[in-house]
UniProtKB/TrEMBL annotation:
It is found in: Endoplasmic reticulum; Golgi apparatus, cis-Golgi network; Golgi apparatus. This is Trafficking protein particle complex subunit. The gene is LOC103709630. InterPro entries: Longin-like_dom_sf, TRAPPC. Keywords: Endoplasmic reticulum, ER-Golgi transport, Golgi apparatus, Transport. SMART domains: Sybindin. GO terms for cellular component: endoplasmic reticulum; Golgi apparatus; TRAPP complex. GO terms for biological process: endoplasmic reticulum to Golgi vesicle-mediated transport. The keyword Nucleotide-binding does not apply. Part of the multisubunit transport protein particle (TRAPP) complex. Belongs to the TRAPP small subunits family. TRAPPC4 subfamily. Transmembrane segments: none annotated. It holds the Pfam family Sybindin.
Length: 154
């Protein structure tokens, strides 16, 4: 069993639209979480440009001694980018968790499905704005519990 420390959702412009802290050590204030989201968005974009292979979608896993950072990035295809043959990436979801946590890719995809179902389909949600949706919060908590990932500091 492994623990999730925090969850971030970043819009395609690099703005933090959702942050949930699950009891990580050294809790971050709002400014720190905004800074971290912006930094990750920038590092992700730079990694795409520095990659020696074409078609790199950015960093998916960052491993450190005390945590792992898993990232899922949605693919958005507009008619303009489709005609040009380019991929355009959109929302990024990343989880900071204990090192060597398994099955995080599956959990990130479930979180993205919840995001599309409860946030994007919400008629009152404005695109690119912070997420304030009770149904998303409730279903997110259930999904994390269902995957038997214990949360710290609940």
């Amino acid at each position: 069993m492994a623990a999730i420390y925090s969850l971030f959702i970043i819009n395609k412009s690099g703005g933090l639209i959702f942050y949930k802290d699950y009891g990580s050590a050294g809790r971050m204030d709002t400014n720190d979480s905004l800074r971290l989201a912006s930094l990750w968005h920038s590092m992700h974009a730079i990694s795409q440009q520095l990659s020696p292979t074409t078609g790199c979608s950015g960093i998916e896993l960052l491993q450190a001694d005390t945590f792992d950072l898993h990232c899922f990035q949605s693919l958005t295809v507009s008619q303009t980018t489709q005609r040009k043959g380019k991929k355009q990436y959109g929302t990024k979801i990343f989880v900071v968790c204990e090192p060597s946590t398994l099955h995080m890719e599956g959990l990130l995809k479930v979180i993205y499905e919840l995001y599309t179902d409860y946030v994007l389909k919400n008629p009152f949600y404005e695109m690119e704005m912070p997420i304030r949706c009770e149904l998303f919060d409730v279903n997110l908590s259930q999904a994390i519990q269902k995957d038997r990932v214990p949360l710290l500091g609940r």
